[in-house]
């Protein structure tokens, strides 16, 4: 988390839960497959506008008897082109619903400030150590708690995962190269 903050002047932090409208719609294998499809399609070009400025993420597979399997995500977007948190959550939630073919459901964690301590959500500047500490305390510590209900069901399952900085840097370089190529192509087309 600190490495990502050190690489950006400011980040927009979005916390949300991606689950299922009816808990019985997904067993652990289905939930894992849906999340893999989510990231595969998120890296694709057709959904570039939603995830183009994603600087990193943290996710955790969770389970409760009332909600079934769901994922708690913290998404870090480059603030330079930020949208409101509400719009980001709606876009990512809509994307999840498409991936799950309408079975998915999304919940914006900022709507429940008492439970999620709204601190650590929104725009956080690199130099704002207090806000960064709140994100680590209320966001990351929450995600790294042991899930007593999931462990017996999730043998050989990665429950907690973070983005790898190298892959996001590679993606960013590819995006910059693609933009540069497009600008050069446009300049060649406009040349007499």
Description:
The chain has 192 residues and is α+β, with helices and mostly antiparallel strands. It contains 7 helices and 6 strands. Strands 1, 2, 3, 4, 5 and 6 form a 6-stranded antiparallel β-sheet that branches. A hairpin with a 3-residue loop joins strand 2 and strand 3. The mean pLDDT is 78.
Task: Lay out the secondary structure.
Blueprint: H1 2-7, E1 10-20, H2 28-42, H3 48-51, E2 54-64, E3 68-78, H4 85-99, E4 104-108, H5 113-116, E5 122-125, H6 129-143, E6 160-162, H7 165-190
Antiparallel strand pairs: 1-3, 1-4, 1-5, 2-3, 2-6
% residues in beta strands? 15-25%
**How far apart, in Å, are the first and last alpha carbons?**
49 Å
Runs with pLDDT <50, length 5+?
A: none
User: Mean pLDDT score, rounded?
Assistant: 78
Largest sheet: 6 strands, antiparallel
* Annotation field: number of helices: 7
Protein structure class: alpha+beta
Radius of gyration: 18 Å
- The number of strands is 6
What share of residues is helical?
A: 40-55%
In short:
With 192 residues, the protein is of the alpha+beta class. The protein has helices at residues 2-7, 28-42, 48-51, 85-99, 113-116, 129-143, 165-190; strands spanning 10-20, 54-64, 68-78, 104-108, 122-125, 160-162.
């Amino acid at each position: 988390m600190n490495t990502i903050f050190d690489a950006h002047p400011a980040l927009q932090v979005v916390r949300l839960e991606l689950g299922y409208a009816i808990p019985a719609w997904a067993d652990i294998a289905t939930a894992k497959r849906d999340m893999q499809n989510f990231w595969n399609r998120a890296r694709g070009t057709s959904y570039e506008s939603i995830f183009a400025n994603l600087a990193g993420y943290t996710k955790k597979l969770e389970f409760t008897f009332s909600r079934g399997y769901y994922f708690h995500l913290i998404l870090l977007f480059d603030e330079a082109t930020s949208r409101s948190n509400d719009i980001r959550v709606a876009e990512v939630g809509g994307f999840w619903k498409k991936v799950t073919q309408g079975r998915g459901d999304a919940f914006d964690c900022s709507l429940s400030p008492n439970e999620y301590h709204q601190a650590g959500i929104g725009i956080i500047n690199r130099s704002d150590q207090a806000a960064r500490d709140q994100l680590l305390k209320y966001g990351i510590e929450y995600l790294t708690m042991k899930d007593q209900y999931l462990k017996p069901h999730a043998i050989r399952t990665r429950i907690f995962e973070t983005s790898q900085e190298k892959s996001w840097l590679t993606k960013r370089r590819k995006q910059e190269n693609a933009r540069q190529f497009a600008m050069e192509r446009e300049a060649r087309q406009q040349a007499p």
